[in-house]
Amino acid sequence: MKRFNKINEFQDEQFCNLNLENQKITNKLFFSCEFQNCNFSYTDFASTLFEDCSFINCNLSLSKIIKTQIRGMLFKGCKIIGVDFTKCDKLMIDFSIEECNVKSCIFSDLGLKNCIFYKSEVLECDFVNADLSGANLCESDFSGSLFHNTNMFQANLKNCINYNIDPLKNNIRKAKFSLPEAITLLNAFEINIQ
User: Fold this and answer.
1) pLDDT for 190
2) What separation in angstroms does the CA of 193 have from each of 159, 162, 181, 183, 184?
3) For residues 67, 126, 20 and 70, what is the CA-based torsion angle, rounded to 10 degrees?
4) What is the tens place of the pLDDT at every residue in 114-158?
5) What's the angle, vertex CA 112, arms to CA 83 and CA 37, rounded to 5?
6) Region 55-69: what's the mean pLDDT?
7) In terms of Cα–Cα distance, which of 2, 78, 10, 98 is closest to 49?
8) C-alpha distances out from residue 140 to 160, 163, 166, Å
9) What is the pLDDT of residue 2?
């Protein structure tokens, strides 16, 4: 932690096995850095820039990202619970989430065009009014996640499970779905399929 107190800018660095639970890493600049096996639960990242950084097998539960800029970020194998992504800089948000446990996070009203949620558990998350056009959501579990007025134009939901998407209240034109789960899209029509 001392190093983060003394230096404000980091480039091409690797950070492993850090336990920074409930710490402040604010007003910092990280370029092309990698974080592996780190605990950032309850960590405050306010007004910090992450550009082309990777978080691998990290715990980011309940971390605070107020005015944080996230550009070209990769989360892989991470635990991300209770994070309000709407608090970060909405003009600077671009990330990929792969093989992660994402729960109770808020993505509403965000422009997440072409973002990636791949092979992840995305449980009880809020995507109301989000733009997920062109997003790759393949092989993810969306149990309890909320989609309303969500733009999913050309999104890829192949092999996704447990989603509840009303085609009358969301734009799913040209989106890709797989059977048998795609049959749930008919739930909104209250029809009986036998």
Assistant:
1) 81
2) 21, 18, 14, 9, 11
3) -40
4) 999 999 999 999 999 999 999 999 999 999 999 999 999 999 999
5) 45
6) 97
7) 10
8) 5, 9, 18
9) 62
The one-character DSSP state at 4 is H
Give the global pTM: 0.93
Q: How far, in Å, CA of 62 to CA of 98, rounded? A: 19
What is the band of 191 on the pLDDT scale with cuts at 50, 70, 90? confident
Cα dihedral sign for 73, 12, 61, 69? negative
Distance CA 20, CA 35 (A): 12
Compute the distance between CA of residue 12 and CA of residue 19 in angstroms, rounded to an integer: 20
Tokens of 187: 């739930």
Q: Residue 23 corresponds to which tokens in the numbers above?
A: 């710490």
Please state, in angstroms and rounded to a whole number, the distance separating the CA atoms of residues 134 and 7.
38
What is the pLDDT, as a whole number, of residue 91?
A: 84
Q: Both tokens of residue 49?
A: 């820039």
